Amino acid sequence: MAIPILAVIGPTAVGKTSLSLDFAKALNGEVISVDSRQVYRYMDVGTDKVDHTTRREILHHLIDVVDPDETFNAADFAEQASAAVDRIRERGRVPILVGGTPFYYRAMLDEVLTIDVPSDPEIRRDLEAVGDEKNGPAKLHAILEEVDPDSASRLHVNDIVRVIRAIEIFRLSGKPSSWWRDRPKKESSRFAPLYFGLTRPREELHRTIAKRVHQQFHGGYPEEVRWLLDNGFSPELPSMKGFGYRELVLYHMGKMSLEEGIESDTVATRRFSKRQMTWFKKFSPAIWYDISEKEYNKVLSSMIDEAVRHLRAWGVVL
Question: Is residue 248 one of the residues assigned to a domain?
């Protein structure tokens, strides 16, 4: 029998974290973070992690897993999150996935179909910059040869678009494109998810994003990035190239003002939230809530009722 899984999804700054904490309390649950940036230690303010006191009250998993100079991809997440589900269930508690990284959900839960690896603008931008360098196409092809020899043998050195895409797939998933292409389909998934989607009107979400970014930049974010740089974490690391971190690296280099960094981070986060919703709208089965239209307690109560029905349908007794 499949394992029932509850998941709280939605764009950045919509309100997933606060609602999910009360959701977990009501269901005797533990939270599995589904956030590709919160896996990094020492990167707390910029990734908006829940504080340590809250993590002691409600156990969280997949936060502070690796150092910023270590690699962590969707395949790593799927393996570790699945193991966390087993540990949580052994304790008689309910695993609840919470976060905004669609591909991590797909890597763990969508075991029926081959995963359609999404594009990542940050990875693509960095690779395109390499392509613009002297002998750039050859450099890109050499990178591909290291991580995906099969694709490198099929793609011409000057086919930059496909070379970049193949590298992007590997960096996102930890697997070469040939692995995804040849992956056998399973007749059934190990998990039976029910997604709880949270939305707000675009203008309201944009205001929330702007407020969060402003609070971060004036609440220890610059100092966090300064500490990372002073402790030897290169600005060229993938973990340091996420929006917010890249702006503050430029700020500390004297190439961008703090206000310019706030504006750049805000715009990037808005764009990211739009991409998140494009992906999350494809998730099924899902129950969506516009949390600006209903009272908080009504949304929470409805989520709890639907969760209990889902769990009981799969034999879980609360």
Answer: no
pLDDT digits (tens, 9 = 90+) for 173-195: 888 887 776 665 555 678 999 99
Listed residues 165, 182, 199: the one ending a domain: 182
Residue 23 sits in the same domain as residue 94: yes
In the numeric block, the tokens 């690391």 are attached to 237
| Residues 144, 132 share a domain | yes
Rounded to an integer, what distance in angstroms lies between the CA atom of residue 251 and that of residue 229? 12
193 is in an annotated binding site: no
Q: What is the pLDDT of residue 159?
A: 87
Q: Is 242 annotated as a binding residue?
A: no
- Within this chain, do residues 139 and 173 fall inside the same structural domain, yes or no? yes
The CATH number given to whatever domain includes residue 135 is 1.10.20.140
Q: Residues 177, 158: contact at Cβ < 8 Å?
A: no
13 in a labelled binding site: yes
pLDDT digits (tens, 9 = 90+) for 11-38: 999 999 999 999 999 999 999 999 999 9
Is 136 annotated in some ligand binding site? no
Q: Is 181 exposed, middle or buried (0-12, 13-18, 19+ CB in 10 A)?
A: exposed
Residue 12 labelled as part of a binding site: yes
Say if residue 15 carries a ligand binding annotation.
Answer: yes
Buried/exposed code over 83-111 (b: 16+ C-beta within 10 A; e: otherwise): ebbeebeeeeebbbbbbbbbbbbbbbbbb
26 labelled binding-site residue: no
Which CATH number belongs to the domain containing residue 290 in this structure? 3.40.50.300
